[in-house]
Structure formats: structure tokens, C-alpha cells
Amino acid sequence: MTTTLTLRPPYLIFLGDETRKTYGKTGQGIADWRPERCAGQLRLTPDTLRIGLPDLSVEEAMAAGAGSLIVGTALVGGSLPAAWIDTLCRAARGGMDIVAGLHSRLDSIPALVAAASEGGARLIDVRTPPADLPVGSGRKRRGRRLLTVGTDCALGKKYTALQLERDMLAQGLNASFRASGQTGIMIAGSGVPIDCVVADFISGAAEVLSPDNTDDHWDIIEGQGAIFHPGYAAVTHGLLIGSQPDAFVVCHEAHRDVVSGWPHIPLPTIGEVIERTVAIGRLTNPAIRCVGISVNTSHLPGAERADYLQSLSDRYGLPCVDPMAGGTQALLTGWERLTLA
Known about the structure:
Blueprint: E1 3-4, E2 11-16, H1 25-33, E3 38-43, H2 58-63, E4 68-71, H3 85-93, E5 97-100, H4 110-119, E6 123-125, E7 144-150, H5 157-170, E8 174-178, H6 182-188, E9 190-191, H7 202-209, E10 217-221, H8 233-243, E11 247-253, E12 258-259, E13 262-266, H9 270-281, E14 289-296, H10 302-316, E15 320-321, H11 323-326, H12 329-332, H13 336-339
Parallel strand pairs: 2-3, 2-4, 4-5, 5-6, 7-10, 7-11, 8-10, 11-14, 14-15
Antiparallel strand pairs: 1-9, 12-13
Helix pairs in contact: 1-6, 3-4, 7-8
InterPro entries: DgcN-like (IPR011669), DgcN-like_C (IPR035086), DgcN-like_N (IPR035402), P-loop_NTPase (IPR027417)
Protein name: Putative NAD-dependent epimerase/dehydratase family protein
Pfam families: DUF1611, DUF1611_N
């Protein structure tokens, strides 16, 4: 019952005129985890953020055989700026599928519908949940589950889950990444866009995302929102209750101290996130426990990274890693933390 995608590579990642890295996380995630499927990036201004791909125009991308233009931004509210429509229409008229993970649907834009019809292109809205999702049952399911949770949004929950899956598979463990957001679904090819599920069905959608499995199997579930977030805490609560995680990893960004986009809201401490996650998660899994901390240290000088991670590890008595700088092996060392015997 999960959303399954078949996207035509190679991809042209469209970044519009977005300058803020936080809101370019969709494009950056695809470039980081599926670079072999990417032809280039399309930026409308010299100041637009870069995601490490070659700059291409629509025409250059078509000449290179690009099959899909993917909107690589995720703005607050999930809207599509009117100034971007002409570029998307040119790509669609040229036969490129248009792919987006926005709350506003592509087929609600008449000019884009007409351009896609003219060019024989598909309009693919990733943020469309499956039909007939159930209300959460709270029934205990077979298999093991790990959920990534955060002190805030856009700081590494998806990257941590993907790296955990990669490292677990490399060690011969039985694990699957479960995507709960538009970028993760584009990377994995399947999942459930939890943040656009009607509230009554969020926990049920999480149960669908992570169904019964063998006793030795770990679902590594991509977290959404943040449990203290003034705008997105609701989806976080529903995902946590429905996921029934045996284990969770708290994700944080070094030296971020206010909620991104809500500068009047101070960030909770890692300890506060652990405490509240356990308190809520015990509703459906009394054995839930925190097994580690994952930190985005990209803004720290390299020489400071090890000391920063060690200080957090000492403070909370948990292994602490930067998954993109050193992998997640430290979370997996002493595997008894995750066997939860």
C-alpha cells in the first residue's frame, strides 16, 4: 500500500531561485544519494544554491537526454512559486516528466497540464498518500524498528537512516530504509508521504510503512518534523506512535539553537527530546529506548568535530556520530544496544 515511483533518469534537479540550503534539501538529498541518476542542476539566478551537479539549462538537459525535471526545493507550506512555472512548462513541452513533492499538485496548474500534454510528459506528485489508509491499531508487529527523531527539521534524520541502512547491510544485517517524506521516496522508490496524510490516519500510515516482518529484520524509518516543533510536531507524534520503534536515534545540528524558520522558538536539548520521545513512544512500545545521537557537524571546523561528538557522548552516555563524516559504525558497535534483549 506504499507509494511506488518509477522515475525516468537522468534527472535535472530544478532549484529555482532558492538560496537557503535548508529549503533545497530535496535536491541535495537526491544528488548525495543517487548521483548516478542525475544529469545536472538548473538554477535561475547566480545566487541560487548549488548541490554539486553541473549547471544545465532546460535545452542542455534535453540534449543530454534528461528524462525528468525534479523540483528540488521544499518550501514552507509546499507551494510552487509562479515565477518558476514557465521553466517547468518548457521542460514538459520538451518531453521531460515533471516531478515534485509539494503540497500543491502539479495538475492544478493549467499551463503545466497543457505543456505536459503537448510534450507527452508525465506530471508526478510524490506527496500523494496511498488510498484507504487505516486508523492506527496499536497492535504489536513482528520485526524490529528504529526511528530517527530530531531536535528540529532538516538536520539529518533522512541521511542518518540511509547511512544506518547502508552500514547495517554492509555488516550482513537484515535492514530496510523506510521513506516517510518526498525526498526519501524519490531516493528509495517507495514509501508513504506521512506529512500529507489526514491526521486521523497518520499512525495507521506508519503501520503500513513498516509492516510485520521476520524477527531478525530491522526497518530503519525516516523521521519527520520534530517532537517540539511549533508547526510540525503533530506529524512527528503520529509517526512515532505508529512506528512502534524498539530503538531511536536523536539527530541534531551542531550549534543550532533555535528552530529553523521560527527564530523565536529555542531548540530543545537532546535530553529533552529523548525524554519526550520515550514518554510518547511507550504508548505502543513500552520497551522503546534511545540508542545513539547523530549530529550534522558540517558547520564545524574538522579539527573540532571529534571533541564535539565526544562531549555529547559523555554528557548523555550514548554513542555519538556524524554519519556523513564517519558513518554510523559507532552506533552499531556493541550490537546489544539494538538487539534490546
